[in-house]
């Protein structure tokens, strides 16, 4: 009597499990890398939109002659930040009418922090002031009360446009916000 046993294979071999795990790890790494890239791209989209909204806000305050404390209408409203590497900006009431933010003198309305790894790298209007990483420059974009005339770095911006550049620390890509000095239009741009 010869009986043949038929063997059945139940389960997976060690090699099959290792190959499956390797494929899974590679897929997880790709998804994570794309998530980080997508998140930084979203942050770079958000930062200029936030500045654009706050510029429109202070422009509107200046046009309507709104008071900031319930009693006082300041001569101007503005936005202030440092660059390169600025990671926050403030909206303020220019209470002493010098077209410049002075800490302790002017009234801060709000401090806005940029999304993670996004910085403001320039504030340009002819003539362009260059700053390097060793030197911090200041940028003030001011709208005067009543007519919302625009001042950039204390200078009337009759023919020039202000251009604020944002950069992602992850991707190196840039986005801009442009304030048209003649029309007062505040628009988003790409680099």
Question: Outline of this structure?
Answer:
With 191 residues, this protein is of the alpha+beta class. The chain is 27% helix and 32% strand.
Total of DSSP H or I helical runs spanning 4+ residues: 1
Mean pLDDT rating: 82
The largest sheet has its strands arranged as: 3-2-1-5-6-7
Structural class: alpha+beta
Pfam families: N_methyl (PF07963)
Organism: Candidatus Kerfeldbacteria bacterium RIFCSPHIGHO2_12_FULL_48_17
InterPro entries: N_methyl_site (IPR012902), Pilin-like (IPR045584)
Keywords: Membrane, Transmembrane, Transmembrane helix
Would you give an account of this structure?
Keywords: Membrane, Transmembrane, Transmembrane helix. This is General secretion pathway GspH domain-containing protein. The mean pLDDT is 82. By secondary structure, the chain is α+β, with helices and mostly antiparallel strands. 27% of the residues lie in helices and 32% in strands. It has a single domain (14-190), classed as 3-Layer(bab) Sandwich (minor pseudopilin epsh fold). The chain has one helix at 14-64; strands at 76-83, 88-94, 107-113, 118-124, 137-144, 150-152, 155-156, 161-168, 174-180, 186-190. Strand 5 (137-144) and strand 6 form a beta hairpin. The chain has 1 helix and 10 strands.
Spell out the key features of this protein.
191 residues, alpha+beta, 6-stranded antiparallel sheet, 1 helix, 10 strands, General secretion pathway GspH domain-containing protein, membrane
Layout: helices, strands, pairs:
Elements: H1 14-64, E1 76-83, E2 88-94, E3 107-113, E4 118-124, E5 137-144, E6 150-152, E7 155-156, E8 161-168, E9 174-180, E10 186-190
Antiparallel strand pairs: 1-2, 1-5, 2-3, 4-8, 5-6, 6-7, 8-9, 9-10
Transmembrane segments: 12-33
InterPro entries: N_methyl_site (IPR012902), Pilin-like (IPR045584)
Pfam families: N_methyl
